[in-house]
Amino acid sequence: MRSLTFCRCGRPEIDELFPIIEEFFQHNFLDIEMDGKKIRGYRSPDAKSIWIRDYSDMMRCFRYFESDLKSCVEHFAETQAENGRIFDYYTVFPEKLPSEKENWAKYVRVPVEADVEYRFVKAAYLAWQATGDDEWIERLLPKMEKALLYVLNHPWRWDKKSRLVKRAYTIDTWDFAYTAGQYHWLQMQITDDTFWGIMHGDNSGYYEAFRLMGQLYSYFNREKRALIWRRLAKKIRRRMNRICWNGQYYTHFVKLTPVTIPGTDEANQLSLSNPIDINRGVTNHKMTVSIINEYLRRRGSTETFAEWFSIDPPFPAGIFGEEKLVPGAYINGGIMPLVGGELARAAFEHGFEWYGVDILRRYFEMIAKKKETYLWYFPDGTPSNIDTSTSPDAMPTDGWGSSAMAYALVEGLWGVIDKQKLFREVELSPRWPAADVEHAEVNVGYASSGASFGYKFDIEDKRILLEINSDKSKIAAHVLLPAEALVKKVLVDDNKTDFKQRKVESSDYVDFELKVRGKCAVEIQLS
């Protein structure tokens, strides 16, 4: 069957990127039966299990070609604890071979993790967005709210003084904590000796989850509940930006428990959630530009093959209890396509379109020849493997990082962002001049519902022509213009429409609104 999601612009690094990533996912799905119910999930790249954290991020890609988006989310909801806690992952496959041989049904919550509940909310939202199933998401709303209330009230998750989400001293959003040598290996438990602090990525994740709850409650005309969650979102954003922002980017870990890690340049550590924070909406434009410029600065001053650091500078070797965690390995300074994809998505949105195109091009060159992609790479470009990882697997078809690149491609370069469900409200931001493309055909669709949104783009004779195809869409258009172009007129089906031309950094855009039922022709006249 022809994919609902494709691009044709004549440039292999653009046209072939999404199909290659989709092929990676054909090796990543897991069909698991739990309590007699079949569940379709997509596995973590480093373990044969379904983790809600990478699953919810990967949904931003596989929702376009996977028809079953609800069974996995439902399973995390069905196994929710009474206090609202959500499991990190489940599996029926032995994980620690050869010592573990049992194929039992296993459910795990890593105690030091503080990010699980917001990822559950995001996964449920993305499933609703693609399926359009109002009844389904309305049934889940109490579970989603219960998960967030758990985080807002549990002493392991919420710091009453700062009124922010807290966690043990882990590397960004990862799942093992620093113990100052008090534990013999990776420490994933909360103890009396836990070093506590605030990690910016947790709080940006809950900010986004609170906003999604507000959006959903508003959609169902429950405005009082919507207002509560919108206010919580506003407050957590304000507090995290006051406490975690260091003037250039987000401080990796704001300590609540005093501790110094010898040999670590903690003050200058740039961690992976920084570009993710941008895409979740917690930064203003000035802050975003500062973060992107910091990545560009480090790109120019580092010898690594890419600036997609998990953390930079890294921690000393073995400081977290595992000798394999040398500087440049895995989450301790490894290079992650996950970070590159998030960074590209942010770059497209904030006037660094050339940088977004550059990241996608470099990633395509990495994966095109061998059709392989890994969760992380050493700074010299050597991919991870089982021997160098703390995990039981190192698949060459990583869906976590590749899905982030697809996210940047579809929403950043192609510029199709679903703002509600089934493309009924779309932000359309084609950025083809940044890639020196004059003609393109794009279609983005959801396999679960068949809903789709497409357009043809042409630049000719000082005109930008758009032919838009959609069953029913309210569109906020934000179209990148060629350098130094001025807009004279915007016509929608030959009718003049109001527009505004504005700059994002040095990039010029034209903004206007329209509604589409079926087909619509747009002509942007330039001078």
Written overview of the protein:
By secondary structure, this protein is an alpha+beta fold. The protein has 2 domains: 6-414, Glycosyltransferase; 425-526, Sandwich (Immunoglobulin-like). Helix content is 34%, strand content 21%. The protein has 13 helices and 22 strands. The chain has helices at 12-15, 17-25, 52-62, 71-78, 116-131, 134-153, 200-219, 223-244, 273-280, 285-301, 337-349, 353-367, 399-414; strands at 6-8, 29-34, 37-42, 50-51, 89-91, 106-108, 158-159, 164-165, 167-168, 196-198, 254-255, 270-271, 311-312, 416-418, 425-428, 439-445, 452-460, 463-480, 487-492, 495-496, 500-504, 507-526. Strands 1, 14, 15, 16, 17, 18, 19, 20, 21 and 22 form a 10-stranded mixed beta sheet that branches. It has a 3-stranded antiparallel beta sheet with strand order 4-5-6. Strands 9-10-11 form a 3-stranded antiparallel beta sheet. A hairpin with a 2-residue loop joins β2 (29-34) and β3 (37-42). α4 packs antiparallel against α5 and α7 packs antiparallel against α8. The two termini are 43 Å apart. The model has no long low-confidence stretch (mean pLDDT 96).
